[in-house]
């Protein structure tokens, strides 16, 4: 029976891996994980003796492969700071983690000492906790004094803490080329109608209004992630609570608006064959006036040197309700079978402190959620201008999913591609998700 139960647990974990990503907090990369010599840093600890007898210790840490381009430099500096503080703990930091590599590690029960997790954004961390893969940090005396309750909730499963707490906010915004907007007489739109009128004007002028990576499963979804709270936040709340349905007219209307953008050519002619690198190049090279992307990619657009602006998509009433999500760039867990839990905890203590967080801010320009982190520049402040923090549609659909019926996966792999190719209407999209959803029983 024990062997049977182990097999069941591993199959359950594998099934739940389909619910991953940051919808927020970054991209998903489907390439096999690989070690980056430039990303590996030696570090260590003079008082790290609890689990190692005071000798040298090596900690294996997996970084986010899909966001290596953004995270490699800040983690070099963070790991160097750790090395200076703990010279007897060697950090082998490799950008080796994506869905596939983590899946393999879970099945083989060969996790690294530390790896990044997404807290309560998906059900994945909860499943790993239930099956004994993560170390309970509740009694480990992590300093949580700088964090509020919602940040603690991100890392909490059944009243216990399982990862370093988030210190940055993720959302999706419209990045736009101020020079192109000014040339075409456009300003930041005050409502949805004004936004769409601007897109039409840009298209008539021969400019692609919005660069979209139609080929990339996650990146093509960012407009939906931005539109969902703006158009249908209350309906999503009701659906998640089981007091409403995904067939609500506001949800159907949101999906129809996304379809309309594709039908009217506002994503350009060849967006279905375009990957994210191509979409970003089209935007930074002046071929497209805007791109809808996450705050995690802010530094990419700043580095291009363009005259960059940012705004959240307004709804028809002019209210700016944005997808709310905490960044998982610095939220790491310790494997329950780590041979060096005390040393690993010291790494989490560094990630949870102001020094490492300021390093991350200085490199990436994320939106801080803690007052003692100084925003990198005025552009970061611009990212934080909105009226209300709303729901993440992927998280809502994840909450309405089971291993047998995955509503989140249905949206990503079925609904969004069909909307982009005009194969279904917004109403049909909502009906498909309603059929896939498993609502909480009252």
Automatic annotation (TrEMBL):
This is Extracellular solute-binding protein. Residues 30-51 are annotated as: Disordered. The keyword Signal applies. SUPFAM superfamilies: Periplasmic binding protein-like II. It holds the Pfam family SBP_bac_1. Keywords: Signal. PANTHER family: ARABINOSE-BINDING PROTEIN-RELATED. Coiled coil: none annotated. Residues 30-50 have a biased composition (Low complexity). Residues 1-23 form the signal peptide.
């Amino acid at each position: 029976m024990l062997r049977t139960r182990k097999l069941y647990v591993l199959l359950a974990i594998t099934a739940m891996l389909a619910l991953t990503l940051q919808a927020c907090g970054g991209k998903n990369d489907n390439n096999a994980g690989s070690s980056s010599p430039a990303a590996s840093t030696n570090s260590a600890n003079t008082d790290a003796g609890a689990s190692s007898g005071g000798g040298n210790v090596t900690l294996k840490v997996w970084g986010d492969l899909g966001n290596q381009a953004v995270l490699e430099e800040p983690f070099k500096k963070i790991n160097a700071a750790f090395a200076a503080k703990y010279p007897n703990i060697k950090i082998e930091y490799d950008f080796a983690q994506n869905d596939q590599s983590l899946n393999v590690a879970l099945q083989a029960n060969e996790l690294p000492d530390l790896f990044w997790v997404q807290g309560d954004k998906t059900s994945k961390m909860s499943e790993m906790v239930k099956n004994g893969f993560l170390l309970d940090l509740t009694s480990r005396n992590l300093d949580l004094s700088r964090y509020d309750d919602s940040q603690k909730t991100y890392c909490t499963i059944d009243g216990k803490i399982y990862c370093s707490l988030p210190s940055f906010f993720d959302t999706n915004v419209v990045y736009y080329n101020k020079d192109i907007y000014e040339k075409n007489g456009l300003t930041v739109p005050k409502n949805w109608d004004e936004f769409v009128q601007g897109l039409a004007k840009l298209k008539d002028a021969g400019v692609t209004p919005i660069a979209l990576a139609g080929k990339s499963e996650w990146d093509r979804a960012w407009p939906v992630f931005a539109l969902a709270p703006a158009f249908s936040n209350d309906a999503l709340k009701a659906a998640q609570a089981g007091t409403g349905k995904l067939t609500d007219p506001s949800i159907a209307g949101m999906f129809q608006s996304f379809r309309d953008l594709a039908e009217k050519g506002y994503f350009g002619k060849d967006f279905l064959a375009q990957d994210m690198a191509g979409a970003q190049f089209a935007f930074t090279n002046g071929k497209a006036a805007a791109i809808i992307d996450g705050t995690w990619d802010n530094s990419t657009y700043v580095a291009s040197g363009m005259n960059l602006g940012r705004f959240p998509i307004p709804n028809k009433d002019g209210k700016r309700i944005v997808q709310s999500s905490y960044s998982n760039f610095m939220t790491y867990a310790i494997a329950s079978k780590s041979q060096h839990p005390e040393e690993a905890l010291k790494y989490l203590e560094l990630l949870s402190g102001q020094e490492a967080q300021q390093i991350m801010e200085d490199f990436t320009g994320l939106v801080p959620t803690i007052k003692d982190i100084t925003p990198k520049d005025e552009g970061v402040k611009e990212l934080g201008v909105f009226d209300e923090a709303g729901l993440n549609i992927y998280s809502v659909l994840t909450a309405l999913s089971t291993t047998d019926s995955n509503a989140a996966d249905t949206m990503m792999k079925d609904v969004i591609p069909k909307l982009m190719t005009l194969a279904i209407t917004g109403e049909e999209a909502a009906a498909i998700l309603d059929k896939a959803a498993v609502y909480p029983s009252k």
